[in-house]
Amino acid sequence: MDKIFPCAKFFADGRTAAGIMALLMQLTLVLWPFAARWATQAHERQRIERLLDELSEANIPTIDPYARAPRKKFRQMAL
Description:
- There is one protein chain.
- This protein has three helices and no strands.
- The chain is mainly alpha-helical.
- It has a domain of 53 residues.
- Helix 1 crosses helix 3.
- The radius of gyration is 25 Å and the shape is rod-shaped.
- It starts with 5 loop residues before the first helix and ends in a 21-residue tail after the last helix.
């Protein structure tokens, strides 16, 4: 769908300015492949960000190993 109607992808995402620019690129027919590639990259970027968010949420440690680390106390030595 991104390659046939690139502007639809941006309008569906709520990015109206990008959708209008993609629509203008589609109207020229010469810039249509660039608009299609732009929409495809935007879709891939969203998918990758969603996967990274899922991974970061899944790998959150339940216990902070440094929270209970004993603090070292240093004594000053008078010479």
